Each structure stands twice: as structure tokens, then as C-alpha cells.
């Protein structure tokens, strides 16, 4: 079923998906005098003399920016700022629905890295956190790192870290299902863009010893001379066994395949050469690297996708609302890999007895945001 | 009575004055599929192929940015971005309360003119209009003019044009009260900053033939060699009679005094030298150039201030909500002096029989926003 027509009708009816409301009364002259002049000078003066009071008297403590440059929107590619807005508004709606966070969409009319960094830093004062969205790799990584260093509020690129965190949560429970230890597994990640590179970095930081990354040209290895800085970085700490050649070669003896690449890259004969009880996460959206029925038939013990019409949906919405809720509540300045691992573990624990068809809680499970936010807040406090 | 304590309590209780709400249901998987992936790709594709569809499918058609650099906030001066936020949120609240417009506050962490222009242009896609606020003169004029030229959405600096429009509305009815014709009046404007310079320009554009501007050093005239570019510009089309020296000299025979300067600059002996039935608008806030009782005693026929505790409150909130409502509804790309004159005339007409104590409708008069917006929309359509 296509949602195109009903989605267009929904967006047209409401003129988008957000509105800004006032939370204070404005019905009398006295109301105006408290919310605006002359009374408003009092909180202004307080903040001028103690900048931390901005968390007390303004919307900063509950407000997040959802920012894109429109360069890598969904599977649609570089469609630009205006056309990206429905996605950014949708993300803001999810922030509200799942974590009660007030999020506002900002689509930038520039795709220059320096300009993006400068612009986001310039508009940061009103926000308690920055969620970067749908910015193409490897630019997204430079932008995120530079902003995280410059700003005193958390900067989170969901396509990278939201995806990596939910994948780690899924792997934790999938490993339980097949009776293996995650840190001793050999994992092949297909795709070395924003999501793939973040998954590799988070798995590495978790302690997975043997990770191989592949792109459309095969294994990402130091022997290749066609790699940019990001893939070079990944090659520097992956592929321990010095595997060569293509995805098929990399998958020999692998315990898990994690695909964030494109439809059709995984073939039944590749699953056949993997280790016993292979795990297949085919996360390309909306069409996965291999359809679940086919993966099962080819021998996969656990299969996950990004789709809501199959079991084991690995969806970022399980992660980013709780991460930001925890970061805002804990007044955390920077979201670290340790916090993401804590979030993944908390998410995995919500399924105490995982099975092949149930490794991750459903999107609407009401406990998700509270356990993830508590884990992040807790990890943040421990690290301070 | 001071509003300081109740204002602080109000701001702390609600953590500011705004929240972002979703306008679409998000309770089922189908809801998610329409508002977010995969359905959201449909409006994205429509906008990518026809950018004007952004007005149909996103919040752009009802959303305005309230932008400051914190350089000239209320009477508090250059208190910076963070401390300006309570004012910007308050302005957004007024947009919602009076015109149903969704406004979002952006306080910039830069006071460099080029950076400000670049930043506002970069974040413009989601907004249907830009309201600049509390930016110091003469920078505010350069910023506004450059942005208005660059962007295809209206850019309005309320401290300039909101003030100028409500002053013109007040003068139209004050002229009626004293039985004079506005275009033939001699008007002295005290203050040559953002508000003063905009008042002078709008009165000139309306056809007031004899305008004199003064600053703290006296009459702004071509003979002075201490003027910056803005005052030079004002001097080029004002002071027809080549008046010299101080405010007292300028006021000889003047029909109206319009003060946007500071408390105490107007003295009884100055009113004494004005023409018959002098009009005194003492708009410095919160303390006017002269208190109304004193102005009356000195012979003023009509007195107006910016205060809510005296008759004839000339408040920008009578103007900017309707101006933006009309601009958004009429899809107007640029707010022209003609539209401001139309708005002022519409506002003035709401008081069909003005008296000395009643030249302008009260702030909560419910017809204000509709007549102002209709006038702007109408003027916009006539000019296209």
C-alpha cells in the first residue's frame, strides 16, 4: 500500500505538521506587562548577569533544533532545503510525540561545510540541543564534530548515532538468541556512509574485535588507494584478518551482516558461507538488502529490517527521543559513545527473553523513552 | 507597580513562554507512515519538482522568525543573544495571540552585519517572513535592506516600521482632532535611531512636506560634519527651512513633536513656541520625553505615549501582527511604504470620530488585526 495520496492530503490539510503555541496567558494588560514589556526586562536582566539562568527562564531547556542542508534526504538524495522540510517537520513531530521535546525544523540554504557550521553555531542560543539530519557523508561527520567541539549543548547526528545505537541494541539481543558473545563475533557492515561508519565506530567502541566494512567496490582496506579520509579512518581499525575483495569474501565465517547500503546487495550464497546461525540486519529503506523471507530461507537465524511490516524493526525513533530527553534533563554538554552504549543496553534489556522474532521493543512501547533517557542521564553523570 | 517578581515567577514556572505542538495524529503505525517515512517522501517530491508547493505542504505559510542579535534590547542595551530571549519569546507569543501566526525566536551569537545577513538568509527556507527585532541602529537598516533584497519573503524590522506605522496612524487622527492637514504640517522628530529614521522616512513617503529631525546634538542638518550615513541620508530630504541649532529652535512653529529619544528632552517652554494646538507624541519607553499631565499643562492639544496607563497608547502590537498576517495571506514578497501607509490609514479609521483622548484603538480591540491585514493584502495586490 502506498501512503502517497493520504500523506499529501494530510500535509495539505494542516499546512505542515507543527504549530507554535504560547504557554502563558495574554488576555489582559497585566498579562502583557508580565509576558512582555515592562516585566520581561526582569528575566533579561537575570540572564545578562548569570547566563546559566537561560535554562530557567526561557524555552532553551526543552527545545531542540532539527537541522539539515537537504543534501541526503531519505532515499531521495540531494533535494535541497525546501523539499526536505516535510521530513524535518516529521522529525520534530516525533520528538514531541515520543519525548515531549519542543523541536523546530531548520533547513539551510547552503551546503558549504564552513557556512553550515557557522550558521548552526550562530543560531544555537535558543536551543538546548542540535539534531543534525539527512546531511550527506562524509561532510556530516566533519560538521557534527566541529559543532560538538564549539558548542556547550549536545550535537547529535541521528543518521549516524541513532542508527548505530539501535543496531547495537539489536545485536546485543540477537547475540543472545544465537548463543554467541557479541565482543567475539565477526561482523560485516555493508555501507560506509553516515550510518555504516557510525555503526562501525560504535561497535568498535563497544569492543567488537573483528569488524569488516564494505562499500560498493568491496572491502574497505588499507590496500585500496581510492578511499577518502573517512574510509581510510575506518580501514585503520577494522579488517583484522586482512580480508580482501568483495562482500562475498568478507562474509566467509562472519557471524553477522549489517546492511545500511542498498536493495539486493545480499545474496543467498553469501549467507551460505557465513558462520553457524548467521544474523542478518538488512536495514536499507524502504527496500532491504534482502527480503526477510528470503534471508530465512537462505539460513539466517535472526533477521531484522527497518520496516514496520516485519518483526524486529530497528527504527531510530527508539533512540533519539530518549537520548535528547536524557541529555536535556541531565544538562549534558556532549553525547559520548559511552552514553550510546548505555542507551543500547537499556533498550535491549526491555526484551528480557529475546527470540528470533523479538529482539527489539516495538516503536510504541511506552517504556522506551524513559529507560533510554535514564541510561543517558546516568552515563552522563558518571562521566562528569 | 513593578512586574519584576511576577514576571520572573511566570517565566520560571513555564520555562519560557512557547511550545511546539504537532498538528497531525501520531498514534498508530499508519499515522507514522503518513507523517513520516515512507509517506513523507510524497510532499518532498512535490516540492522538489515545484518549489512553490512548500507553501502548501509545510509550515512556511504560517511561520515567522523573530530574529535579534541582542544588540539593542528594550531599554537594556547590548545584553547579547541569551539575555534577549525572553523578549523574543514574548514577541512570538504576541504574534500568536493577535494574529494566529506561528513565530519562533532566533537569537544570534554574532553581531557582525555580514554574518547576520548570511545567517538569516541561510535559515530562511522554513519561514514565510522575517521579523527583525532589537538590533542597534544604523546596523539594523543595512541588515534589513540587504535581506529584503536577497529574500523572496517579507523582512520587517518592527522597531523601525512597526513604530513608524503606528505613529502615522496616530498622527492621522491627531491631525483631525486639531483640524489640520497632515501633509501641510511641520513635524519635528526627536531621535534619529531605528524608530526615528523610519518615522521620518514614512512621513516623507506619505507626503509630509516639512520634517525636522533632531538628535542629542540638535538638528540633523547637512551643515554638520559629525553625521554617519543614516543621518546624512535623513538630512538630505528634511529640514526644508534650514533650521539650525537645538530642539527648541526646531520646534518654533511646529505642529507636532514626535519623540523616540529619551525621558526629559521635551520642556514646557518648547511646547510654548510650537504652532497652535500642538500635538505631542512622547514615545520614549517606559519614561516618555515628558509626562502627559505636564504636556497638557504646557498647552499640548493631543498627547500620546507608549504607555498602557495613559490614553492614546501607540503600541507596535497594533501593527506588526496585522502586517505579517496580510503579507502571509497575500503571499507578499516585500513590505513597502505604500503598504505601511495603507495599514496606518486602516488603523486610524477604526476610530471614526477621534478626540484628544482617543486617537488610536486599544491594543485588545478585536478588529485591529483584520483591518490592518486586509489593508496590507489589498495594497500588495494593487502593487503587483
Structure description:
Two copies of one chain form a homodimer. By secondary structure, chain A is α/β, with parallel strands linked by helices. Helix content of chain A is 44%, strand content 13%. Chain A is built from 16 helices and eleven strands. Chain A has helices spanning 4-14, 29-35, 41-49, 54-57, 80-99, 113-123, 139-150, 158-178, 194-206, 229-237, 247-250, 268-272, 292-297, 320-329, 337-349, 368-382, and strands at 18-22, 63-68, 102-107, 129-132, 155-157, 186-190, 210-215, 218-219, 256-259, 279-282, 302-305. The first copy, chain A, has a six-stranded mixed beta sheet with strand order 8-7-6-9-10-11. In chain A, strands 3-2-4-5 form a four-stranded parallel beta sheet, with helices on both faces. The longest helix of chain A is centred in the middle third of the chain and has 21 residues, at 158-178. Chain A is elongated and about 75 Å long. The N and C termini of chain A lie far apart (49 Å). The mean pLDDT of chain A is 96.
* Largest binding interface between chains: A-B, 96 and 95 residues
Which band does the percent of strand residues of chain A land in?
Answer: 5-15%
Order of strands, widest sheet of chain A: 8-7-6-9-10-11
Helix content bin of chain A: 40-55%
Amino acid at each position: 500500500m502506498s501512503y502517497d495520496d493520504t500523506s499529501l492530503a494530510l500535509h495539505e490539510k494542516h499546512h505542515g505538521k507543527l504549530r507554535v503555541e504560547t504557554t502563558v496567558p495574554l488576555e489582559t494588560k497585566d498579562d502583557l506587562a508580565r509576558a512582555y514589556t515592562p516585566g520581561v526586562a526582569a528575566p533579561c536582566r537575570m540572564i545578562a548577569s548569570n547566563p546559566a539562568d537561560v535554562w530557567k527562564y526561557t524555552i532553551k531547556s526543552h527545545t531542540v533544533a532539527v537541522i539539515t542542508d537537504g543534501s541526503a534526504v531519505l532515499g531521495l538524495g540531494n533535494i535541497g532545503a525546501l523539499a526536505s522540510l516535510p521530513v524535518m517537520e516529521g522529525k520534530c513531530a516525533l520528538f514531541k510525540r515520543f519525548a515531549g521535546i519542543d523541536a523546530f525544523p531548520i533547513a539551510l540554504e547552503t551546503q558549504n561545510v564552513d557556512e553550515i557550521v557557522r550558521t548552526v553555531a550562530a543560531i544555537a542560543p535558543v536551543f538546548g540541543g542540535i539534531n543534525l539530519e539527512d546531511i550527506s557523508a562524509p561532510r556530516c561527520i566533519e560538521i557534527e564534530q566541529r559543532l560538538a567541539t564549539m558548542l556547550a549543548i549536545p550535537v547529535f547526528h541521528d543518521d549516524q548515532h541513532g542508527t548505530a545505537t539501535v543496531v547495537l541494541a539489536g545485536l546485543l539481543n540477537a547475540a543472545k538468541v544465537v548463543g554467541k558473545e557479541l565482543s567475539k563475533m565477526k561482523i560485516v557492515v555493508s555501507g560506509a556512509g553516515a550510518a555504516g561508519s557510525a555503526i562501525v565506530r560504535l561497535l568498535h567502541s563497544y569492543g567488537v574485535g573483528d569488524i569488516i566494512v564494505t562499500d560498493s567496490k568491496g572491502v574497505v582496506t588499507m590496500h585500496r588507494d581510492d578511499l577518502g579520509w573517512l574510509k581510510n579512518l575506518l580501514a585503520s581499525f577494522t579488517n583484522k584478518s586482512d580480508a580482501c575483495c568483495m562482500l562475498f569474501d568478507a562474509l566467509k565465517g562472519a557471524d553477522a551482516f549489517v546492511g545500511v547500503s542498498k536493495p539486493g546487495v545480499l545474496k543467498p550464497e553469501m549467507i551460505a558461507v557465513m558462520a553457524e546461525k548467521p544474523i542478518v540486519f538488512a536495514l536499507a529503506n524502504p527496500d532491504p538488502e534482502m527480503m526477510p523471507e528470503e534471508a530465512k530461507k537462505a539460513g539466517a537465524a535472526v533477521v531484522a529490517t527497518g520496516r514496520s511490516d516485519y518483526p524486529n524493526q530497528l527504527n531510530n525513533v527508539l533512540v533519539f527521543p530518549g537520548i535528547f530527553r536524557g541529555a536535556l534533563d541531565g544538562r549534558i554538554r556532549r553525547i559520548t559513545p559511552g552514553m550510546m552504549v548505555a542507551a543500547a543496553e537499556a533498550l535491549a534489556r526491555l526484551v528480557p527473553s529475546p527470540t528470533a522474532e523479538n529482539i527489539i521493543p516495538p516503536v510504541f512501547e511506552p517504556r522506551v523513552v524513559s529507560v533510554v533517557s535514564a541510561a543517558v542521564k546516568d552515563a552522563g553523570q558518571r562521566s562528569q
